[in-house]
Amino acid sequence: MTPPALTVIGLDAATFDVIDPLLEAGELPAIGRLLANGAFGPLRSTTHPLTPLAWTTMTTGVNAGVHGVWDFTERDESGHHLRLVNGSFRRAPALWELLSARGRTVGIANVPFTWPASEVNGFLLSGLDASARSDGAVFPSELAGELARRFGRLDLDHAFPLDGSGRVDLDIVRRAAEARCAALAWLVERFQPELLFAVFMSADHIHHLAWPEWEERGAESRVADVYRILDGVVAVLCELAGEDANVMLVSDHGGGSLAGVVNLNAWLAREGFLTYADGMADIRTEEGRRRLVHRLYKLQRALPDAIRSRFRRRLPRLRDWALRRREYSVIDWPHTRAFSYGTFGNVVVNVRGREEFGVVEPDDYERLRSEIVERLHELRGPEGDRIVAAVHRREDLFAGACLELLPDLVVEFENYAWLGKGALTYRTDDLWDEIAVDGSPESYVGSHRHDGVFALNGPATRHGRVHARIEDVAPTVLYLLGEPVPPEFEGRVLTEAISEELLDRRPPEYADEADSVALAGRTTYTGEAVDEVEARLRSLGYVE
Fold first, then answer.
1. Can you tell me the mean pLDDT for 202-218?
2. What is the reported pTM?
3. Widest CA span of the chain, in angstroms?
4. Cis peptide leading into 21, omega within 30 of 0?
5. Based on the structure, what is the number of domains in the chain?
């Protein structure tokens, strides 16, 4: 077997804030070996440091204004309703598509926002945006059946590791890691990819559920236990790579404590920018029917699975009608100048001629944005402390043909210890909130941070400290595989992580023209896949 020339191990949300203390305590031997003779340092994530945006930026080398993936949902053509996002919404080629077009072989496993699976030169197993009820989760498609025959039903880490009572069960984490490693070993032997890129999500999950436990108990916490499991994953994949290959360790963002949740629509209402609709809309109107359907939909979600399945089988037309109409809002759009959506801090101006029920004249757009920015900087937490670090105009952070898909203002909370929730389907007048963990007594107590993890070890590496940006990963991967860097890439080759001898022998090469890579059209979820993916993301706290 020829091992991969480069193995990229993605540990979603991994942070040196956990790794360093555990290394000092003599823990995490595999990660310790990677760092001991390699290059390593913080990897600065995107703003917001959120899974869809961050992983897509890492693997395309361009900003969200170019690749078009911002959040777990995006606003539809009306501007007022949300739809689920998946990998087909990406408008820039990912590393595996560029490499496949150049005739290189790739193996991609569990990278978020890769559904439906691209037709690559090698194999691809989609990430957490994949639906078990949908085709297209695996390429080649026949590989799905063969994996099932060899390994049974793979335990995936696409949801919190909770047992039947809703409590954290680390055996779920361990089984998922072991099953994924066994499958990857077989896939590498079969396809012999030159690039292996595999992601594991469990650090992110345990941060959300148990971060204060890490701060209180350190190495005795469940957070430390999950990092030990992930260190075993690193050991297996490093052994699979062999001694003569390069191994890169990355995370899309870091992790930390969650101080609280701000209901931004409640704040916008308090400040006079947003108006809630009063009561139940007339059932004779389309909006009234949408609200009724939404209430019925919420009721049926509480039913046992067997009853829900019977309902879907016997009344398929009613269910399809409900799906088409359940997208409604509690916002009084004709009297609303700005609103929020998502969970990390997004504000949209309700512009006339852009949003379906827009009321803000384009000439007033900048004045209103400035007013919202000024007032958001005055927002204080329950204890009177400042919680807003910055409010960015979207064009100050991003540029490209997809800029219009992004919110007008990006609210960055202090150290991302606060989340900025924008609920469109229910009204709340309370400014402060929390995120519930569906069906669980566990609490949502951890959040994301800007600084993730970067490490590189192998014959191409020099030892030393590196300060990298997430956009730097893609060009560095291409360089290590001996490929020219496309001109549209916004990051740089991390030359300080690469041996001087190699750089002298083969300086970074930059292509004159962009690669011609055909991207598939958008694929939206249908039928029960909508329910499944939406429920998964809701259970993770990422959608309302």
1. 98
2. 0.92
3. 75
4. no
5. 2
